[in-house]
Design brief:
Blueprint (H helix, E strand, L loop, with lengths): L2 H11 L26 E8 H5 L2 H13 L1 E8 L1 H9 L5 E4 L2 H9 L3 E16 L13 H11 L3 E3 L5 H12 L9 E3 L4 H11 L2 E5 H8 L6 E4 L6 E9 L9 H12 L1 H9 L2 H4 L5 E2 L2 H6 L3
Parallel strand pairs: 1-2, 1-3, 5-6, 5-7
Antiparallel strand pairs: 3-9, 4-7, 4-8, 4-9, 4-10
Helix pairs in contact: 6-7
Length: 294
C-alpha cells in the first residue's frame, strides 16, 4: 500500500490517545544526574517487527548517545511484551495491538501511553498463488479463499500483535482455521517468513519486516493489501512504577519523550526511504502531527 493510502487510513482507524503527551514540537527532556547518568540501562520490551525490520538499530543509537543510557531490547510478541510489563520485568513497552494496550492501561499496569507510528499488514504468498487471492481487496475474503483451497498458511501462533490481527481477520471471515494446512509456528515474524518461503505457504506480515526480508531474498510476494482492517498502529507505554522500586520510571518517560519528539519522528520517517522509496513506518506522535498542520 502506498504511503498516501496509509496516511488516509490513519484518519479512519486512529483511536483517541491517552493523556500525558509531550507538548507539540517540544524537545525530549534532558536526563537527570540520577537515573539518566552514563552507564544506566532501561529495559525495552517490544515486538519482533521493530527489531527484524531494522528500525531499532536505526534509531536507538541516537537515544543512547544523547542520554548515556543503554536500551536493553527484549524483542518478543506483543502478548509476551505486555506480560513482561505486567510482571514488572520491563520499564517501557513498544507494541502494536491497540485494544490490548488500552486494556493494559485500564488495568493499571502502565502509567502513560503515546501513539508513535503506524504501517500496515500485508498477506503474502508464493508467486503461483494457488488460492487465487492476488489483488483481493478484502482481507477476510482472501483468508476464506485460502481456507477453501487448503493451501498451507503459516500463523505466528505466538500471541503477538500480528497473531492478534490474524485472528481478527479470521473472525471477520467467520472461520476458525484448522487442519493440516494451517500451521501454528509459535515463532517471531522473521522465522515465520522463512517457514512460509520454504513451505510455499501464505502468511500475514507487517509490511516493514517483509520489505526488510526482500533484501536477503525471498520468493514470497504481496498478494493482498489495502483493506482498512490491515491498519497497524504502534504505541509506547511506561510501566507503572508501582510494580517495584526497580522500575526506572524517570528513564521510561525520558525514552517516551525522546521517541515521540519531532527529531526522532523524523528519524522514523526517514527509515526505508532510500532503499524502498517510502518509509517503512509513518510517524504518528502528537508532536509530529502538529508540525504537519499548515
Amino acid at each position: 500500500m502506498k504511503t498516501k493510502l496509509l496516511i488516509l487510513l490513519v484518519f479512519v482507524a486512529k483511536m483517541t490517545a491517552c493523556t500525558g503527551r509531550l507538548s507539540p514540537g517540544a524537545d525530549p527532556v534532558e536526563p537527570s544526574t540520577g537515573e539518566g547518568a552514563d552507564g544506566a540501562q532501561i529495559i525495552l520490551a517490544t515486538t519482533t517487527s521493530t527489531e527484524n525490520s531494522g528500525l531499532l538499530a536505526h534509531i536507538l543509537p541516537d537515544f543512547e548517545t544523547k542520554f548515556g543510557v543503554t536500551a536493553e531490547v527484549v524483542a518478543v510478541g506483543t502478548g509476551q511484551a505486555l506480560r513482561l510489563g505486567e510482571s514488572g520485568d520491563a520499564d517501557v513497552l513498544l507494541v502494536h495491538a491497540r485494544a490490548r494496550e488500552d486494556a493494559f492501561m485500564e488495568a493499571g499496569h502502565g502509567s502513560r501511553r503515546e501513539d508513535v507510528m503506524y504501517n500496515d499488514f500485508v498477506i503474502l504468498g508464493p508467486p503461483q498463488d494457488p488460492a487465487g487471492i492476488r489483488s483481493q481487496g478484502e482481507a477476510a475474503r482472501a483468508f476464506q479463499m485460502i481456507a477453501e483451497s487448503e493451501v498451507p498458511f503459516v500463523s505466528r501462533g505466538d500471541d503477538s500483535g500480528t497473531h492478534t490481527k490474524e485472528k481478527a481477520i479470521w473472525a471477520a471471515a467467520d472461520l476458525g482455521p484448522s487442519g493440516d494446512w494451517y500451521i501454528s509456528a509459535g515463532q517471531g515474524m522473521g522465522a515465520v517468513l522463512t517457514m512460509a518461503d520454504e513451505e510455499l505457504a501464505y502468511t500475514l506480515s507487517d509490511r516493514a519486516t517483509y520489505l526488510a526480508r526482500t533484501t536477503e531474498g525471498t520468493d514470497l510476494e504481496i498478494l493482498a493489501e489495502g483493506d482498512p482492517i490491515l491498519f497497524n498502529p504502534y504505541g509506547v507505554m511506561a510501566v507503572n512504577p508501582g510494580k517495584g522500586e526497580h522500575i526506572k520510571s524517570e528513564l521510561a518517560n525520558q525514552f517516551i519523550d525522546w521517541l515521540i519528539s519531532v527529531p526522532t519522528q523524523e528519524l522514523i520517517g526517514q527509515y526505508g526511504v532510500e532503499e524502498f522509496g517510502s518509509p517503512l513506518f509513518i510517524p504518528d506522535s502528537e508532536a509530529w502531527l502538529a508540525t504537519q498542520i499548515e
